[in-house]
Amino acid sequence: MLVLVVDSSTPAVTAAVAEVTADAVALRAERRSVDARAHGELLAPAVREVLAEAGAGPGELTAIVAGLGPGPFTGLRVGLVTAASMGQVLGVPTYGVCSLDALGLAATRGLDASAAPDGEAAGRVLVATDARRREIYWGVYAAGRRVTEPAVDAPAAVAARAAEFAAGAAVGEGAQRYADVLALPVRPEPCFPPADALAALAADRVRAGAPSEPLTPLYLRRPDAVAPTARKPVLP
Amino acid sequence: MTDEPLVLGIETSCDETGIGIVRGHTLLADAIASSVDEHARFGGVVPEVASRAHLEAIVPTMQRALDDAGVSLADIDAIAVTAGPGLAGALLVGVAAAKGYALAAEKPIYGVNHLAAHVAVDTLEHGALPEPAIALLVSGGHSSLLLVDDLAHGVTPLGATIDDAAGEAFDKVARLLGLPFPGGPPIDRAAREGDPEAIAFPRGLTAPKDLAAHRFDFSFSGLKTAVARWVEARQRAGEALPVADVAASFQEAVCDVLTAKAIDACRAQGIGTLVIGGGVAANSRLRALAEQRAEKYGIQVRVPRPKLCTDNGAMVAALGSHLVAAGVAPSRLDLPADSAMPLTIVSV
């Protein structure tokens, strides 16, 4: 079963075609460009390229998997609306995956246990992506699962929480950016939500032909909007 | 008739998620979801609120449009989408959706100019547009006069507002008068009971010295302040506010300047067709005054019905259909959303 995977929750714009079989998930093609300001320009051509490289027409897709974030809103919506619109045309289900979960899975279990980095894989890892405004989206993971729910906070607050939950290392571009504040060893990879981990987290739903899901972004913040105060008079 | 292109249009530049379907100049579907109620308490459109609403609305609105037209995406010849100008985050939802639809259905995509679409929508009501024509585009975000010599390739800006858009002035005056957002419809209604000559509000950029530099430009900021001063003076004096008279006199000031400059543009260019579009074109006084003044000079006024004047997907589809018929090449799949897209660019 071929699935399209998209994620635009971080500065990385990711598109991939993955093959989901009864007991494995394998990437057939992947494109990743890192440009926080060009999600809208980069994603659609990347989708076309991975389909071509996988030798598959859009009609051969069984499902579409999309990273739900959390992530900066404008870029995040590009991936979700691309997945939703393609799913609607093709009549295939769309499945959402928390983008931090994909990083957490790759960082603490790995898709291939033998690839786990020097025994640390069993420990707890802080996953952090950049939320801008000097905050990070974060979660603590162990053995591929959430220890904490996804949240957004200032790096110093996250450092305290990560210590509380006994994280021994950190991953993600948010962790790299605020490494000095987090006071944890930061691993260079995974830096962005990996396509194979996103596919793996939806694989059971793909295999079961689960019902399509609405792709609701994990915003974690309310829109910046304040109701107007009393109007300022123009007369002196 | 059936060899005319079947074109789908997607509009998300502000607070309306619009998807329209046309065949040639025939409107087949015009589905709209609006987030206006979510913005009302803020007194204006909140970009992030609008963007979130577009994401939720796009798939169901598409389904409604396809059902209304009785077609599937496989039948569509091309997909047009507003690429700008507008709110950046809101535009991006529509552009990314259009790319997803185009990719999955393997159809050409056209990224088009929102303002040119406001002109093109009139073809759905009155058929092919004679060129050249003068277009007056007035909405909450824009107030422009354009020379439309070739709608498929480029329009020439003649003038625009130098401060507030006309629709913005309606919203602000409505708030002063305790009328709801958006301000256009309630002011139009209140004005029907009022005297348009009760208060002599200023007509921006109409004095001879202003006309020399700004013959086809508009200014509504001074008018808005003049209304505020007048209203506050009555309130301080403890007098009752004659809402209908203020609404009528304000509306008259706006419509007077808009129509006078539009007719002047037609006469200056020797052009016999004036198209009016944008949300403010739904205003009943603007429509009546334009007709009345144009008649004197034998100028034909074309204003689509109010539902086609406000933002919608049909206008984008109408422009797309015009581009396909004119043999214009489609856009690339990496086309950007451009919040400040200039009027000289009709499609990217």
Automatic annotation (TrEMBL), chain A:
Any Pfam family the entry gives: TsaD
InterPro entries (UniProt xref): ATPase_NBD (IPR043129), Gcp-like_dom (IPR000905), T6A_TsaB (IPR022496)
SUPFAM superfamilies linked to this entry: Actin-like ATPase domain
Origin: domain of life: Bacteria
GO biological process, one term: tRNA threonylcarbamoyladenosine modification
Boundaries of every Gcp-like domain copy: 36-159
Stated name of the protein: tRNA threonylcarbamoyl adenosine modification protein YeaZ
From TrEMBL, chain B:
Keywords linked to the UniProt accession: Acyltransferase, Cytoplasm, Iron, Metal-binding, Transferase, tRNA processing
EC numbers: 2.3.1.234
Residues bound to substrate: 137-141, 171, 184, 188, 283
GO cellular component terms, semicolon-separated: cytoplasm
A single BP term in Gene Ontology: tRNA threonylcarbamoyladenosine modification
EC class (word): transferase
Compartment(s): Cytoplasm
Name used for this protein in its record: tRNA N6-adenosine threonylcarbamoyltransferase
Lineage, broadest ranks: Bacteria, Bacillati, Actinomycetota, Actinomycetes, Micromonosporales
Gene encoding the protein: tsaD
